[in-house]
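Changelog-adjacent note: as of this version, every example in the card shows the full chain rather than a window. The one below runs 708 residues end to end.
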Amino acid sequence: MPGTVGRVPTPSGPLPGTPAPGATTVAGHPRWGATALGPYESWDPAVRATVEVVLASPAPMALHLGAELLLLYNDAYAGLIGDRHPDAIGRPPAEVFAEVWHRPGVGDIVEQTYRTGVPVLDREIPLPLHAAVTLDQPVYTRACSPVRDSHGHVVGVLSVVAETSPATRQLQGLSEFAATLAGTLTLDDVARVALRYAITSFDADRVSFAVDDGGGGTGWRMVRRVRGELVDEADERLPPLWRRGPAGWSAPAVVSARTGQASFIDDGQPLHEIAADRHDQKIRALAAVPLRASVVRGALTVGYRSAHPWSAAERALLAATAELVGQATERARRFETQHGTAQLLQRSMLPENLPVLPRLRIAARYDPGVDGNAAGGDFYDAFVLPTGDLGVVLGDVAGHDVQAAARMGQVRAALRALALNDPRPDQVLAGLDRLVGSLGAEAGTYELFVTVAFGVIDIGREELTLASAGHPAPLVRRCGPAGEPRAEYVDVPSGAPLGIGYRAATRTIAFSPGDTLLLFSDGVVERRRHGLSEGLERLAESVAGAPSGDPRSLCAVASAAVPGATEDDVAVLAVEYAVRPSRSARMEVPAEPTAPSRVRHWMTAQLSEWEVAESVIGAAVLCASELTTNALLHAGTAARVEVDLSPERLLVSVADSGSRGTVTRARTETLSSRGRGLGLIEELSDAWGTDPTVRGSTVWFEILLPPA
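Full-length structure tokens:
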């Protein structure tokens, strides 16, 4: 049974071995006389003996005495509670640590030990208790044991605190690391996660990740991270900067990956032969551990600038880390192979280039849904008809597999053939309905259906004729010479999808200079837990509020109009009837270091010839140079620079054939050297965005021109 600290007659002087009052301010504190415990000299000998042990220990210890668990602790513990010492002596911990004491796992452990007399080992306690928990805050293990008096009664609790070793903390963080790796898809993702974990978990000066190129032993690629390297949000999303090497590369990471043997250097110059800069040259201790993967060869290295003996715990942690990275790397390699096949299939099904016409500007955007690892059924097309009119189409074949993509290719080719023979939209879709029905009968399924919207733009009559088979109604952005832009859905009879009873019907509306037509798939407006009408309303509001009717800008606006992730493909096709013809030019840029310089000279000459204002030329040339550098650096492929000048705006785009993915805005207040060009473009342009098409990535910007 818990009791009070028993009092026994004591001599006038201190007991042998007992710290004299004043020698230790904790035990000799005058506050005890005013508490229920009474003066220190009157305490039970067994309790005083425990006090002696606590005060003499170099480890942090605290005594919680009496029913109020009054605090008494040694100097080591005083260092943990900071400025709460010395006022904490003799006070209930519920007062000293009032903000956290009643949280689960803090005060209840001590109270439980006092009530039951059963010791408790409590792990992962952040100290000091009153401080806000941070990632680099030390974590402690706390052992709570009952303190008994000479009669065996529980009169308090002894709390012994020990800091958890770094290796133990690292092992405890492996589960979180494994969970993060489980969400990676590509090798770039794996590299980012692995490097971030390694440099923080091991508190290293340099870490690197190497993997074979997957081309039959033709070479290796390696990426590193250095302590103190500033990485902002844009850097984290851009691909890592890989360094390429030959099959016989002598880099320690490559040697470890090639031989399958780990190496540990305590002190030396392990990177002297392959040092890329001073960061590599300063490394003295280096561990290189192979990934232990069955298919992919690779390795992880951790290095320090000072001598560092590698403990058994560190070696075990490195081996476990490399094994997790190896599993993630194999998954990523399989994904990239499948993803490349899906992209190649999708690429062959969609038009390589859209028509270039004097008064009609055309742009399209396609975002693969799900995880991008399967070819989808969404498609778009735009082509000039024998009459000189423009045919535009956007459709969706049900499914997300190779079969859906193959059917999509059949439907798209058949639609163009039918339109070239008879361009009337209702007749085109009626013929296409017969084809889809035939394909379904051939496959022995009634689940094959296609939604599609097909239109013909006649700029001579300034008319747009549309027909729809179960597809979302197209949207038209109208912007007259005077008045605010507005967006309205075309009231075209949608009917049933192709293959399940389509009934031909058309609608003809006015399509005047300044108008823009927007065709889109249901992935643009459909979201889980949100109604379709809400998505359609958001899309119309976003298109009406766009800074211009430029089709590329509207495609980007439409794709981001409805917040939230979608599992469906997103396809958008926009056609603007320009008020006046625009002028355009393009330049093919080789993947060479001199490419940005060539782009600057070419653009300066071209825009000067078009008599563009010098202020606009300066901003456009600088932005184009940054985008070209980004394309060459991160995609590693040749690029294409396109310039389109209208009386209202200058549009510049840079396209590559790599798979950079979504490019994000940089935080321009950071000091990072990567991603800074995007922040610059945001400052100098009126609008900018990215088009992650199946052929690669296109980054564009728009500068509005002042009235002539």
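Structural remarks: DSSP finds 18 helices and 26 strands in the chain.
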